[in-house]
Amino acid sequence: MADDSTEQREYEVVVVGGGPAGLSAALYNTRLGHSTALVQRGGGRAAMMREVHNVVGVTEDVTGNEFLETGREQLADYGCDLYRDVVSAASETEDGRFRVCGTNADYVAESLVLATGFDDITPEPPLPRTGRGLHYCLHCDAYMFVDEPVYVMGYNDSAAYVAMIMLNFTDDVDLVTRNHEPTWSKETATMLENHPIEVIKEGVTGVRNGSDGWLEALEFEDGTRREYRGGFAMYGAEYHNGLAAELGCELNDDGTVDVDDHGQTSVEGVYAVGDLTPGHNQVPIALADGARAGISIHWRLREFPRDVEAIHESGPVRAEEVPGIPDALLERAVAFHTYE
């Protein structure tokens, strides 16, 4: 329940999470004429990217933070309200809207987009530097290690499969279990035995970096030193699904939020996009998730066309009722036009 003294900010759409999926959803909703707020705590997986990969039109000298900052600037230009806040609770209001409670304010919306993502579970130190030898996204970063020595850390089926997949890019792959007993299946074990991958069971005792900060080698308990250009940690993910669960959205067994093809959850009016949902964790896919959700929300919220039932109830659309875009966004759109 909201504190009576807490400021309440009301919108048609509120997006929680400022990664690529959240930015995309907010962008579409704003440009489609809905009063929209983006509430983000900062940080996140995208912000950690030293280089943005696989995004057409974005070169690899762009960092994750630069990419996200450009997105926030675009949103502000179009009229989306941006808030830095930590959201800790969510609920449905008596009139069928949704309230999310932040540290600084409460945000109430007709449609809510959850883009809260997940955190990669990291192994215990010692570890290479993130982005300079420690990576989490095979599809983003495998290209960086073509014909280079690579490790994969982990002891489950996912780790074993990633190690075997990396053979598509290099002939020098080690699977490092760090004293953990493997949990992969018998079938996976048979596959591993028939691929040229060495399983290193010893724990890691040290990391050697070059003058450029990139990983050069890992040191092991048995006194050996193995050279690597980089590698991947495969220890799973912790999904930020608390708000979704609190609202009654159905969750999948792995902790992702169950959604349809448009990002709609099991609770009408609540959407989930990006890394919080099943599928590949990629920036272009997150952008597409946000776009699909934004268009779906527009279909749900848009004023026109008024259907026959509504015409019988409210009468024909009057000239003074159109266009169906809030005055503030209308003024922004007119000022934004660059036709001349």
From TrEMBL:
The keyword Flavoprotein appears for this protein: yes
Gene3D superfamilies hit by this protein: FAD/NAD(P)-binding domain
Superkingdom to which the source organism belongs: Archaea
Domain FAD/NAD(P)-binding, first and last residues per copy: 11-290
Transmembrane segments: none
Keywords: Flavoprotein, Oxidoreductase
Single GO MF descriptor: oxidoreductase activity
Protein name, UniProt field: NAD(P)/FAD-dependent oxidoreductase
